[in-house]
Specification:
With 139 residues, the protein is of the alpha+beta class. The chain has a single domain, classed as Thiol Ester Dehydrase, Chain A, CATH 3.10.129.10. The chain has helices at residues 24-34, 39-42, 44-48, 59-72; strands spanning 15-21, 79-84, 87-88, 97-108, 113-121, 127-137. Strands 1, 2, 3, 4, 5 and 6 form a six-stranded antiparallel sheet that branches. A hairpin with a 5-residue loop joins strand 5 and strand 6. The protein is elongated, with a radius of gyration of 16 Å. The chain starts with 14 loop residues before the first strand and ends with a strand.
């Protein structure tokens, strides 16, 4: 079920999360959808010769988990994703469990816009993506 909180029911400091373990098939499906077959993501032999020594997950795949939180948890349905600032802080590897977390940091009642601090961290608690986002509520 998708949550759908009204603008007035959302408060500063409120948080929500979504977790997912990234599989090899996730990487290949994402590569196919967006057309990014960079060998850093899909070629194990190539990746062994890089500083990471193995394949890394697409940064935007990691960041896309933020959208999952917005669309299903907070603020949920009837929301419009206006903008997202993304900073990649650390590599993500196949098999990592990522948690996307959003936190309300500002509300703009005149247009029902909510500003969020966004981050994605791995199973070790290391931040791999962070930034800010703006979401408009339709109710």
């Amino acid at each position: 079920m998708v949550a759908d909180k009204s603008f007035d029911d959302i408060y500063i400091g409120e948080k929500a999360t979504h977790s997912k373990t990234i599989s090899e098939s996730d990487v290949y499906i994402f590569a196919g959808i967006v057309g990014d077959f960079n060998p850093m993501h899909v070629n194990e032999d190539f990746s062994r010769k890089t500083p990471f020594k193995k394949r890394i997950v697409h940064g935007m795949l990691s960041a896309s988990l933020i959208s999952t939180v917005f669309g299903t948890e907070l603020p949920g349905g009837s929301s419009i994703y206006l903008s997202q600032e993304v900073v990649f802080r650390a590599p993500v590897f196949i098999g990592d469990t990522l948690t996307a977390e959003v936190e309300v940091i500002e509300k703009r009642p005149e247009k029902k816009i909510i500003i969020f601090y966004t981050r994605v961290f791995n199973q070790k608690g290391k931040t791999v993506v962070d930034g800010k986002a703006a979401i408009m509520k339709n109710k």
